[in-house]
Specification:
- The protein is of the alpha+beta class.
- 51% of the residues lie in helices and 17% in strands.
- The strands form 6 sheets. Strands 1, 3, 4, 8, 10, 11 and 13 form a 7-stranded mixed beta sheet that branches. A 5-stranded mixed beta sheet has the order 17-19-20-22-21. A 4-stranded antiparallel beta sheet has the order 2-15-9-12, with helices on one face.
- β6 and β7 form a beta hairpin.
- α14 packs parallel to α18.
- It is flat and about 120 Å long.
- It starts with a helix and ends in a 5-residue tail after the last strand.
């Protein structure tokens, strides 16, 4: 019980943590006038709240209102915004939800805001309206009229921009609703700077698109799982539930469906939303029964089917004016279903059933957000639409639960298969001659052991290489990828459009660099794990160096460097010409890395020199190949580090922008060590550097 209580408390805390209650407007209009001289709305947008002038059953333009005021004086009625006119008392009678009216408010701006470009963020207003700002018609959603045949309902969120002509802003709005149970301005209209409100709207749309896409992808994925394995119905109900609420998230909040398809039928939009709400209770009940069998009674399943079916039929056959009056009843039905299922979850958690505690926790989160949505749409809550976020949390938790079920089922199948295979092998062995079986099985096991050992060694090397490669990629690619992401976001957000071409060049250069780095990382990983094969053959080092020099002479000289090859002392000593057993292609790669580094860090008019000598090292005759450059050199204290992976040293005095992966010298070391040799470097940090590659010579008879 302590675990259950803790889960409920944490769920409630998490629910209220993810729901941000909007700040109550500090400034409110009084009798149709709003004084904003003490606030800078262009920087701090304000939600409009308070009394607006209210003209019931009149569709007045700004000119009509001015004419009436000049003729009859001010005899306006006032209504609090945001709220529906449903229940508003007029001449001793309460208004119903259908009708039409005109709203008006005058806003006094501060000195700072008079010359600023402002915007109005308009929510969904039930269900057709026109908006004038300072006598100019800026927005029109649907068609406003005085009877049902002349009114065309439509729902959409809008952002309208205007430039104040003076220190006063007059808002006049005609609203008509003859198709829904309630009408009027039921949500906050927000006034602020055009840039600030644009960013807010785009961020909200992006968040809703993320939630919608996540729900849709998760739903389709689980439906495909059910198609491939129809024995388990839990993915079917969970996929349907997630897919339906992914579709519903297109129909609420910022109304992404109208952003993508402005002409989407209003009546169909409402029917889909209500049908999803009605059918979700039956779907989630069946899903719960699949996850925790015997916790949902038969009469409850039957009652759920009857009630949800009745609600769905009413929604399909009746107009919105009728079935929208059932919203409170639908909300009560959904909440009661969730409470019933949570009681069953509590029993399952007490019995320590797998996943019950997590299910209970996220159900509390979903319950709080769903209850808030029903209160919000009935104008009893100031918190906005929160159910998509709560359902996303619920969906992710259920996806984890289903994944664990699939993993456990797959593991059990593998275990049973292994047990059956073992039993079959034992029965086979019992039918054969015991002595021959022992001998044959001993030989087979010996061969299998050898094969397994070989396979294991290969797998170990492969796994070690994979881990190293993954670690290298994680470490080395994070910085260039983060840089590329920053440039992409700068282009998307149009931070500095005039530098887009430069940003794209940075992205291209980083892409080339990352591709090269991946190739070098992969090759180095294979080298370190012994997965690179070498084709060793006896090669005269003099001939090898001459071919290398002739191949790359033009490359080095084109870089403005003097390139020399020095082994005159050995060329005339034919019997003593060093011969090394080597893979010429791999060793050429290592030598080119050294020359390439020398070119990269040597200024124009400098020199690169390759020399060959023969010396005795540890009683072994070795060929010493040296690569010398005339650059600024390497600090002596860093010479021990330069062959480590990712070592980079920016030598002073050279052009900026010289970048490398830091892997070249590490690759050289691996190749040279594979030939039984060593590599080292010398430098005083001022007059260039020399790299020595020592390779053991062989005797040629």
């Amino acid at each position: 019980m302590l675990h259950i209580i803790a889960a409920v408390v944490v769920g409630l805390v998490a629910s209220y943590a993810v729901i941000s209650v909007p700040d109550s407007p500090k400034f409110q209009s009084k009798e149709g006038f709003l004084d904003l001289t003490q606030v800078h709305v262009s920087e701090n947008p304000l939600k409009l709240k308070g009394e607006w002038a209210f003209y019931w059953h009149e569709l007045l333009s700004p000119e009509d209102i001015q004419t009436r005021s000049a003729r009859d004086g001010n005899h306006d009625r006032w209504i609090s915004i945001p709220s529906s006119w449903l229940g508003y008392r007029l001449d001793g009678q309460q208004l119903n939800g259908t009708g039409y009216a005109t709203f008006r408010v005058v806003i006094q701006l501060s000195e700072q805001d008079r010359n600023e470009r402002l915007a109005l963020r308009l929510p969904t207003i039930f269900h057709a309206y026109k908006l004038w700002v300072n006598g100019e018609l800026l927005a029109e959603v649907g068609v406003v009229g005085q009877d049902k045949s002349s009114v065309t309902p439509h729902l959409a969120t809008k952002l309208v921009f205007f430039q104040p002509k003076n220190d006063k802003v007059e808002l006049v709005m005609q609203v008509a609703n003859l198709h829904h149970k309630r009408g009027g301005i039921t949500k906050y209209i927000e006034l602020g700077g055009s840039d600030v409100l644009t960013v807010r709207k785009n961020l909200k749309i992006a968040a809703e698109m993320f939630i919608t896409a996540s729900l849709l992808v998760i739903g389709v994925y689980h439906l495909l799982l059910f198609i491939l394995r129809r024995k388990d119905r839990a993915p079917l109900y969970f996929g349907l539930f997630t897919l339906l609420f992914g579709i519903r998230s297109l129909l609420v909040g910022e109304l992404l469906i109208t952003q993508l398809w402005p002409a989407f039928p209003w009546g169909l939009q409402f029917k889909i939303e209500y049908l999803i709400l009605c059918s979700s209770t039956y779907i989630i009940t069946m899903y719960f029964d699949c996850i925790f069998p015997n916790y949902v009674s038969r009469w409850f399943q039957l009652g759920t089917r009857i009630v949800t079916g009745a609600f769905c039929i009413v929604v399909v056959v009746t107009p919105a004016l009728i079935y929208t009056k059932l919203l409170l009843m639908i909300g009560v039905m959904v909440v009661l279903h969730m409470i019933y299922l949570m009681v069953g979850l509590a029993h399952a958690a007490v019995r320590r059933m797998e996943g019950a505690l997590i299910f209970l926790l996220v159900s509390v989160v979903a319950l709080v957000t769903v209850i808030n949505d029903f209160l919000y749409y009935n104008e009893w809550s100031l918190i906005g639409n929160t159910s998509p976020l709560g359902l996303l949390v619920f969906t992710i938790a259920q996806m984890i639960l289903l994944s664990s079920r699939f993993t456990r089922a797959a593991s059990n199948e593998e275990r049973i298969a292994r047990e059956l295979q073992d039993a079959n092998n034992k029965l086979t062995e019992m039918n054969m001659n015991l002595e021959r079986t022992v001998q044959e099985r001993t030989q087979a096991l010996s061969a299998a052991h050898d094969d397994l050992r070989t396979s294991y060694d290969r797998l170990l090397h492969s796994e070690e290489g994979r881990k190293k490669l993954l670690a290298y990629i994680t470490h080395d690619l994070r910085m260039p990828l983060s840089s590329m992401l920053g440039y992409v976001e700068a282009v998307q957000d149009r931070v500095k459009p005039e530098r887009n071409e430069q940003y794209l060049k940075y992205i291209r250069d980083n892409t080339i660099r990352v591709n090269r780095m991946i190739e070098e990382l992969s090759f180095l990983s294979h080298l370190e794990t012994g997965q690179v094969s070498y084709r060793m053959e006896q090669v005269h080092v003099v001939h090898f160096l001459r071919r290398f020099y002739e191949q790359y002479e033009l490359v080095v000289r084109d870089a403005g460097l003097d390139f020399t090859l020095d082994f005159r002392d050995l060329e005339d000593q034919r019997p003593n010409v060093p011969v090394v057993e080597m893979d010429a292609q791999r060793l050429e790669q290592a030598l080119f890395n050294l020359v390439s580094n020398a070119m990269k860090f040597t200024s124009s008019s400098g020199a690169v020199r390759i020399a060959l000598a023969v010396e005795e090292e540890d009683h072994t005759r070795c060929a010493i190949i040296s690569v010398q450059d005339s650059g600024t050199g390497i600090p002596p204290e860093q010479l021990e580090q330069i062959f480590d992976r990712n070592y980079r040293y920016d030598r002073p005095g050279l052009e900026k922008g010289i970048e490398g992966s830091g892997l070249g010298l590490a690759i050289c070391r691996e190749i040279v060590q594979a030939h039984g040799g060593t590599i080292r470097a010398e430098s005083d940090g001022k007059t260039g550097s020399i790299f020595y590659v020592s390779l053991p010579c062989i005797l040629v008879l």
